Amino acid sequence: MASSNRSIYSALAANLLIAITKFAAGAFSNSAAMISEGIHSLVDTVNQILLLFGLRRSRKPADALRPFGYGRELYFYSFIVSILIFGLGGGISIYQGIIHIITPEPLGNPTWNYAVLALSVVFEGTSLIIAAKEFNKTRDGETWWNAIVKSKDPSTFLVLFEDGAAVLGLFIVMICMFIGHNYNIPQLDGLASMLVGLLLVGVSMILARESRSLLMGEGISDESKKRIMEICESDPAVLKVMKIISTYQSPEDVMLMLIIAFKDDLDTQEINEGIERVRSEIRNEFTLIHFVIIQPEVITHKFRY
Fold this sequence. Notes:
Layout: H1 2-29, H2 32-58, H3 73-102, H4 111-136, H5 144-150, H6 154-182, H7 187-216, H8 222-233, E1 238-250, E2 253-262, H9 268-285, E3 289-298
Parallel strand pairs: 2-3
Antiparallel strand pairs: 1-2
């Protein structure tokens, strides 16, 4: 979580400063694309604040109202962030672009725009590098896309996507602005705004899909299930693992439920001792699993196979 905070704080500082300068440059040069970029940076700033708030809420200890803790608060706020990118970032940018394509305004002096865009590339690029380095530490040999799909910490890949979209959007605006000013095509300013908006809509759809999946409840990997089954069935009291049910309550908290068939010649005390051994072994190996609920079942000889 500390690494997540580092990338979020760096993105927050960069976006706040950049948003102010983009709005100022857009006002001086009558550039819809720059205004859209300012909106983009402002939305990203709000997003980082929401992520930090979600991270703080997710760390609240369990209480009578939430006996399993508040971990899913992070997933909720991550989903809200993806909706904000779609609505405020993408929607407003597309609207601004359409308006400026239909009724293009005379292009002002682009000098300030170029200066702001160049600085923005430096700041956003630095933030992207930090986010990429932090996320790379969690990949564990997976491809980037597979690591994103399997990640249970949305604060890492949300910042990565936001910064990536920001850098790509800056280059789109720079290219369209350069061509528009050199060939006197003011409509390209609106086109740049539309392209930035479409980029944000695409990113928001990916993030919404991943955040929704986490909010609905994702389980542990097949490899972890296999290892848990091995741990359980190696215990002398266990006959067979009937079912494994798991869900991530937060990136650092997994709830596990096991339905285990114990040998039919065991008494209640021996079954309870077996349950405690299995629970202890699982917790020792899987530090993220905090809740282990075991439902015992007894299979008689005639039903064995």
